[in-house]
Write a structure and sequence with these properties.
8 helices; Arginase, Chain A; 9-stranded mixed beta sheet; globular; alpha/beta; two-stranded antiparallel sheet
Length: about 290
């Protein structure tokens, strides 16, 4: 890989050499545009050691990371305070992985890190569709005058994807204008993930990028995030959604973002993030 990564212990079960891997795991430790509480840049540092509290086997999917071929490249070494350069480096890494015929799962970081990763996937797969699981619309055209914000990530993706390519689930927070805009530009399901099944059936053979913002979970379940939003889904509902994703034949990449581990000293939020990453890695593997 051409990008410099920070050396770290690998996520449990992800020790396959890069050349032999089917899926690449890497972190994007950036939270330079967060609108409330910072700290997502520390997610990767918390997730990897805590992953050893898991088993490699998922009883939900009946798959085991020991049977998968996953390389953990650690966290990208990103320049602090330079949003455009950060996005450029994430995009370069994503393109490198895809050009090598591999899939990737990215650990955020704030949600803006998804933008260059989704763009890179779109460049390789022009018919790309995005499944977005989140508490927030992320459809602002700008936040305080800046179009590059974690509050604008999905709107920026729409700039190149266009209508009919973005499917949003679990949404329960955003400006009235964002919900109105979504009515004619995205598929947006408020509060739940009940329509995910039919959407998965519709996208079964399409190239799909899955982005999971962990604040979709109720803060009673997942307090370790910078923008907690009451009224969210349970962890079991998220696992059910991931199980439904198994029907997709062409998930090309994914990310799990917005863990801020310092806001949950119990470690429960980090444990939930680890488990979600395990399930998504197994989903990406053939």
């Amino acid at each position: 890989m051409t990008n410099k990564m920070i050396s770290t212990n690998a996520f449990i079960g992800c020790e396959t050499p890069y050349t032999e891997a089917e899926v690449v795991l890497f972190g994007a430790p950036f939270d330079g545009t967060v609108s409330f509480r910072p700290g997502t840049r520390f997610a990767g540092q918390a997730i990897r050691p805590d992953s050893y509290g898991l088993e490699t086997y998922s009883p939900y999917l009946d798959k085991d990371l020991q049977d998968a071929r996953v390389f953990d490249g650690g966290d990208l070494e990103l320049p602090f305070g330079n949003t455009e350069r950060v996005l450029e480096q994430i995009g370069d890494c994503s393109r490198d992985v895809l050009a090598d015929g591999k899939k990737f799962l990215m650990i955020g970081g704030e949600h803006l890190v998804s933008l260059p990763a989704i763009r890179a996937a779109y460049e390789k797969y022009p018919d790309l569709h995005v499944i977005h699981i989140d508490a927030h619309t992320d459809l602002r055209d700008d936040y305080m005058g800046d179009p590059l914000s974690h509050a604008s990530i999905i709107r920026r993706c729409h700039d190149f994807l266009g209508d009919g390519r973005i499917y949003q689930f679990g949404i329960r927070s955003g400006m009235k204008s964002e919900f109105e805009w979504a009515e004619t530009h995205t598929h947006l399901e408020k509060f739940t993930l009940k329509t995910l099944g039919p959407v998965v059936e519709q996208l079964k053979d399409k190239p799909v990028y899955v982005t999971i913002d962990l604040d979709v979970l109720d803060p009673g379940v997942f307090p370790g995030t910078g923008t907690p939003e009451p009224g969210g889904i349970t962890y079991r509902e998220l696992l059910t959604a991931i199980d439904e994703l198994q029907q997709l034949s062409n998930i090309v990449a994914a990310d799990v973002v917005e863990l801020s581990p310092q806001y949950d000293p119990s470690g429960a939020s980090t444990a939930a993030a680890c488990k979600t990453i395990r399930e998504m890695l197994l989903t990406l593997c053939e």
